[in-house]
């Protein structure tokens, strides 16, 4: 993957990508099937491989090697995503996020939405 030298675009891409990842985690089934676990695991490894900022992708692949995706439940993947985001935050000298607040922050990716806590992905299908 080529480098992404423009730091403004890199930051915008990062914010959008974290939003997607954390929102996917917050909407992931509480009791995923084996097929759903495998789908998310594959998505995360492909995301790390194809992420369109070469340096970020390389670093994220190392982070994944040390922190394999935890896909056994909504809570597990939400906490995992928070942890790996914090690894990136630390590397970039950004404040660390309190992972006990992650479900609240990313409940559905839209801060003002109604409570959809029990609205699993399958229920919407
Ligand atoms: P972001 O870090 O984008 O976070 C967006 C929002 O998420 C924050 O405002 C906060 O509300 C919330 N948040 C913050 N931390 C957490 C957490 N731990 N858990 C849950 N929510 C949280 N940029 C580089 O310059 N070099 C890199 O090597 C690099 N690698 C990256 C790798 C990946 C996989 C991704 C997705 C992005 C990467 N970025 C990298 C971009 C970088 O992480 C930021 O997205 C970018 O710098 C913008 O930062 P920000 O301060 O606006 O907030």
TrEMBL record:
Catalytic activity annotation: 2 R'C(R)SH + O2 = R'C(R)S-S(R)CR' + H2O2
Molecular function in Gene Ontology: flavin adenine dinucleotide binding; flavin-dependent sulfhydryl oxidase activity
Enzyme class: oxidoreductase
Cofactor list: FAD
Alphabetical keyword list: Disulfide bond, FAD, Flavoprotein, Membrane, Oxidoreductase, Transmembrane, Transmembrane helix
ERV/ALR sulfhydryl oxidase domain sequence ranges: 6-106
GO cellular component, one term: mitochondrion
Enzyme nomenclature, EC number: 1.8.3.2
Name this polypeptide is given: Sulfhydryl oxidase
Organism: Thamnocephalis sphaerospora
First-to-last residue of the parent protein present: 77 to 201 of 215
